[in-house]
Write a structure and sequence with these properties.
By secondary structure, this protein is α+β, with helices and mostly antiparallel strands. The protein has a domain of 127 residues. It is 14% helix and 33% strand. The strands form two sheets. The chain has a five-stranded mixed β-sheet with strand order 2-3-4-5-6, covered by helices on one side. Strands 1-7 form a two-stranded antiparallel ribbon. A hairpin with a 2-residue loop joins strand 3 and strand 4. This is DUF177 domain-containing protein. It holds the Pfam family YceD. InterPro entries: YceD.
Length: 182
């Protein structure tokens, strides 16, 4: 998986020209860009990637809501055959201007994390928020980490012969001395 983030063309929103009602962004990612996203995610293919977003001003930044629809192909973890996955994920994220502020507390300080609270906002520099990372991250989190065909199991790949040589320690039997066997 590549460490450099692929930037999806036209996946950015400028704040200085945003109307008060917000801005809609509809993307149908082309084949070359879908190939780059698939390479970044380490999967076989992204056959379809469509995103509809709505951005409104929020606390000096923007709040982005919408939906991602995709079709992906990954190898099965059981048979390595291609597995097609249909994805439809909601998107909601807040972007604020400026970088994150560095926290310089004491080394042994406890940090409280509210798991039920809102997500930490993303940040952007300048007057434009690039939403490429949001799109790729949403797709990555929606992928099945262990894809397999319907009905596929690891047990189906094993030989059903219950021979003694199939047991985990069967090879140790030859190491026993005649006194041990009695």
């Amino acid at each position: 998986m590549s460490t450099e983030l692929f930037r999806i063309p036209d996946a950015s929103i400028r704040l200085d020209s945003m109307p008060s009602s917000g801005r809609d962004l509809a993307l149908v990612v082309d084949a070359a860009d879908r190939l780059a996203v698939a390479e970044q995610l380490g999967i076989t293919a992204v056959e379809k990637l469509e995103v509809k977003l709505h951005a409104v001003r929020f606390k000096g930044g923007i709040r982005v809501t919408g939906r991602l629809v995709a079709t992906t192909v990954q190898p099965s973890v059981v048979s390595l055959e291609p597995v097609v996955q249909e994805i439809a994920e909601p998107i909601e994220r807040v972007f604020l201007p400026g970088g994150e502020k560095a926290y310089a507390g004491p080394a042994d300080a406890e940090i409280f994390v509210d798991l039920d609270g809102e997500d930490v906002p993303d940040h952007f520099e300048g007057n434009e928020a690039d939403l490429s990372a949001l799109i790729v991250e949403t797709l990555a989190l929606a992928l099945d980490p262990y894809p397999r065909q319907l009905g596929e199991t690891l047990g189906a790949l094993r030989d059903d012969g219950d021979t003694e040589s199939d047991l985990p320690f069967a090879g140790l039997k030859i190491l026993k001395t005649p006194e041990d066997k009695s």
